[in-house]
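call fold(seq) -> tokens
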Amino acid sequence: MTYSTENTLLYVEDLSVSYGDKTVIKDINFVEKDVIRTGNVTGQVIAFVGRSGRGKSTLFRALTGLVKPSSGKVLIADTTTGIDNDAKVVNEGDIGFVDQKYTLFRNKTVSQALMFALRNKEITKEEKEVKIKEYLHQWGLEKVKDQYPNELSGGQRQRTAIIEQIFCSGHYMVLDEPFSGLDVGNIQDVKDAFNLMTASHEFNTIIYSTHDIELAVELADSIYVIGYPSIEGKLADYGTIVKHIDMKEIGLAWKDFGLDHMEVVKQIKAAMLSS
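ret:
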């Protein structure tokens, strides 16, 4: 499927994070660009996979500005200036972050939580109400708009948390294990949420981690394996990118899962096992 890439949306250079004497991740480098497909609005879907304890959550905290890197930098496109390739250092709040618990305000209904998420947007109350109504409809949450988090299903809580972060942060979204512990129906809900996000703006960029390698290969157009690198025959004790698979480049992005995808799953599993 033909595509081209334009402006850099995410630029990570020599990123390392240490806590005291312990280096958790080191020398993380990657670049993701705006993907253009004729006749399609195409956002970016980027998956991170790796064995437990290899630093994925620490990397996500650094990407979202929740933890300060020990060295290196994370830059995103500054889409507010209107100048191509204008970049800015990530600060907390620039990139939405949805954790595994889908943390929501316990004392706010879905509608109230979304209104609160729009509190800093310079639009009228009426415009905010229209925007909320539009998202509730698109994301299948109209019937639960007046319900509180404890009255929602896991899938409904997650969709509310995602919309909150879209309203607060704009084009970038990091999801930590969004498929963890979900049944088949709720997994489909998350896939639908991904599709809604990527189809609504070409700058929209989803970054997620998963232990389900097949879901990474099915949904992502760029996949990074985080593991311990091998140095002189021994595994180091910090995480870094040990493999990158560009699904666009090999012609498997935006296609139904098939035998060729299974080959990629095998490659990823081998990279994980050796790191």
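Helices lie at 56-63, 110-117, 125-138, 154-169, 184-200, 213-219, 259-273.
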